[in-house]
């Protein structure tokens, strides 16, 4: 399922590139715009697809190659282990729900923002939150800038992910959704949702005896 999610994100991005000058309008329509959701006079309040579909479709859109590669690389690192613990179906549900929570938290922190939110990072933050709970003793190989050099170091997953989470929290506290850029609070919301949901989902997974 992790590979399938990566493939879908890549294919959608390639489609975006084919749109040329229409790409911006496409992202505005299918990205999640808090102001459109908040000011329901822009659309009919009972038009649920127009209000809620962008919360899902925005998870599969990206604004550039680096945005896509960074998100997919992170999903590749953390996603397969979490998927192994949940199974394909529950993992997909988990991924989408984390993304929805991330989008809604972003909306709550900037309901009047007219800037479309795109990217899988909210859902991936949920996967990272699940990894944080399930694999606290795991170690992660990462690049760390030390003075003028980039060093390859191995860090405990719990330390790496805790540092990442508090960095998102800090940036979220000093920026606003209306200023554009990175949706920091979406990352925070997705991470917390992922950490909170992972154990109940895993415990509720059916177990079968071999016969």
Structural features, described:
The protein is mainly alpha-helical and 211 residues long. The chain has a single domain (2-138, 176-203), classed as Rhomboid-like fold. Helices cover 64% and strands 8% of the residues. The protein has nine helices and two strands; from the N terminus they run αααααααββαα. The chain has helices spanning 2-18, 23-30, 34-38, 48-57, 65-86, 88-109, 121-134, 157-174, 184-203; strands at 139-146, 149-156. A two-stranded antiparallel sheet has the order 1-2. A hairpin with a 2-residue loop joins β1 and β2. It is globular, with a radius of gyration of 18 Å. The mean pLDDT is 82.
Label this structure with key terms.
single chain, 211 residues, mainly alpha, Rhomboid-like fold
What is the share of helical residues? 55-70%
Poorly predicted residue ranges: none
- Tell me about the largest β-sheet: 2 strands, antiparallel
What percent strand? 5-15%
Multimerization status: single chain
CATH-level-2 architecture: Up-down Bundle
Number of helices: 9
Tell me the structural class. mainly alpha
How are the elements arranged and paired?
Elements: H1 2-18, H2 23-30, H3 34-38, H4 48-57, H5 65-86, H6 88-109, H7 121-134, E1 139-146, E2 149-156, H8 157-174, H9 184-203
Antiparallel strand pairs: 1-2
């Amino acid at each position: 399922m992790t590979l399938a999610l990566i493939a879908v994100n890549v294919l959608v991005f390639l489609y975006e590139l084919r749109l040329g000058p229409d790409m911006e309008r496409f992202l505005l329509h299918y990205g999640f715009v808090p102001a459109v959701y908040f000011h329901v006079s822009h659309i009919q309040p009972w038009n649920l697809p127009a209000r809620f579909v962008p919360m899902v479709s925005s998870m599969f859109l990206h604004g550039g190659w680096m945005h896509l590669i960074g998100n997919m690389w992170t999903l590749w690192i953390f996603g397969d282990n979490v998927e192994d613990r949940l199974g394909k179906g529950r993992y997909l549900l988990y991924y989408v729900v984390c993304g929805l929570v991330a989008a809604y938290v972003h909306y709550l922190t900037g309901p009047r923002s007219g800037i479309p939110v795109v990217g899988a990072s909210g859902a991936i933050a949920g996967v990272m939150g699940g990894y944080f709970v399930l694999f606290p003793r795991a170690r992660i190989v990462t690049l760390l800038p030390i003075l003028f050099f980039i060093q390859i170091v191995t860090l405990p997953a719990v330390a790496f992910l805790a540092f990442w989470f508090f960095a998102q929290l800090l940036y979220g506290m000093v920026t606003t959704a209306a200023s554009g850029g990175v949706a920091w609070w979406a990352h925070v919301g997705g991470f917390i949702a992922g950490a909170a949901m992972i154990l109940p989902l895993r415990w509720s997974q059916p177990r079968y005896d071999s016969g």
